[in-house]
Amino acid sequence: MVFDWFKRALAQPAPAPAAAPTPAPPPEPEPPAEPEAATVPAEPEAAAPVAVPPSEAAPAVAAAAPPPAPATPAGPGVDEDALAWARQAYARLKAQQEAASQATAPAPSPAPAPAAEAPPAPVAEAPPAPEADPEPTAATAPEHEPAPEPAAPPVASGLSLLEQAAAQRQQRLQEITAPAEPAPVAPPAAATPATPAATPTAPEADAADPSLGAFDDTFTWSAEVLAAQGRSVEEVSLEEIDWLGRLRRGLEKTRKGFVTQLLENLGDDPLTPAVLDDLESTLLRADVGVKATDQVLEALRRRLNEEVVDPAEGLRFLKEQLRGLLEEPIRAGGTALLAPQRDRLNVWLLVGVNGVGKTTTLGKLANLAVRSGYSCLIAAADTFRAAAVQQVSVWGERSGVAVVANPSANADPAAVVFDAIGAARSKGTELVLVDTAGRLQTKHNLMEELGKVRRTITKLAPEAAVESLLVLDASQGQNGLRQAMAFASAAGLTGVVLTKLDGSARGGVALAVASEAGLPIRFIGAGEGIRDLRPFNSFEFVEALLAS
């Protein structure tokens, strides 16, 4: 199942009564007849959205799965309407999962056939000896050997070094553009047992497909976050539920210190100036930044002067202010969700200092693009770090994405980008992801080299949509902000990818980057898995950051 994260609807957060659309009086007469026949897996799919009243929807779900048990601990602080909405979403996703499992069930049905094959076995005892003589395997071997033919065209004669280098580059370009034609040649070999070797590449990326877990606190929280954004039960997907659970777990370290101190400061009494002073130190310790902290506290003080603010209202107002800080650079850029443009060449350049996870982020972006239905190509322009090309190649294999690289040591990164853009044009590729070498923002010559790569892209593909994304390690805190400032001038940054949120207690650096550097957060990574990188959503980030 393909879920296009680049087309995901970023609905504006709706007020708490998002469950209002569920109570629809007209469909009330239908549920009484349906609960009896709800045992069929196909029916719950249509009945879930219709069975609006929680009193009737709850028993149907309770009979299908054992979720009601975890619902009891959530009772004291959870809205019943939101809980009923989450049950309906869970029932619908469960029905979808059961339908998918039944769709795959017919495949093993041919298993009984082997039982009939057992009797013919004794009859075939005589032929095996003569068949071993002709050695059919030797005939199949030459079919695989035509593959090494491309190695035959070596270019070497009495040419100068420059001419040899130009010939080698031309040969690499031909090899890159050639794979489009060998694809049809593969089918004859596909008929042979070689087919299983070609197929594992796709299942390898699909092996980590999310599965529906228990109806627990994580699922109900994820469902509430989606409902608060105006989603209906029919629009909830397992991909989103899975990602929200990963995001909440990834921000646990930041949340443990931040939320605990925040709730202690708010207490049960209305907000006072002393509480705001404690809140200021809490925000600064979370690396939110001085400018962002001043903006938030100034808004709270103005609100406090106008009316009495209780803790619940203060927390809601704080979330609203934090979302505003994160959304401001996104609105200024005019693009709510960064996505490759269809039928056009898109070049995304990933830059950053050493060790922030540029190559890993590039591999996850490639997987995300492929799963969203885009054609993708990777340019291994990190030609200085040892084994960088091999690492990129492994990520490309995991997602089935071609990698353009120069095998020679210390090759020119701009030359690799030149070859990659040429290959992308010949194949009609939509997205080219460029991996670059790590460099400190204080090294002027390396920053100039980065500018050369950017100029090469602009000169070679002026019609392409170019994005320069800075990869920041969340554990670096305020140092990441200084990196953003330096790279913004050299590489013409258009966005930020925040990584390693799961291993840091400084997740507030996202607010500092957005408010002080004025750069929009485009993607966030909250884990080491290939699915732990997703487009940034300010509402979901703040809710996960301040989840109680």
TrEMBL record:
SUPFAM superfamilies: Domain of the SRP/SRP receptor G-proteins (SSF47364), P-loop containing nucleoside triphosphate hydrolases (SSF52540). Residues 520-533 form the SRP54-type proteins GTP-binding domain. It catalyses: GTP + H2O = GDP + phosphate + H(+). It comes from the Bacteria. It is an enzyme of class 3 (hydrolase). It is a peripheral membrane protein. It holds the Pfam family SRP54_N. Keywords: Cell membrane, Cytoplasm, GTP-binding, Hydrolase, Membrane, Nucleotide-binding, Receptor. Residues 35-64, 96-106, 188-210 have a biased composition (Low complexity). PROSITE patterns: SRP54. Its EC number is 3.6.5.4. GTP binds at residues 352-359, 435-439, 499-502. Belongs to the GTP-binding SRP family. FtsY subfamily. Involved in targeting and insertion of nascent membrane proteins into the cytoplasmic membrane. Acts as a receptor for the complex formed by the signal recognition particle (SRP) and the ribosome-nascent chain (RNC). Part of the signal recognition particle protein translocation system, which is composed of SRP and FtsY. NCBIfam families: ftsY. This is Signal recognition particle receptor FtsY. The lineage of its organism: Bacteria, Bacillati, Cyanobacteriota, Cyanophyceae, Synechococcales. The gene is ftsY.
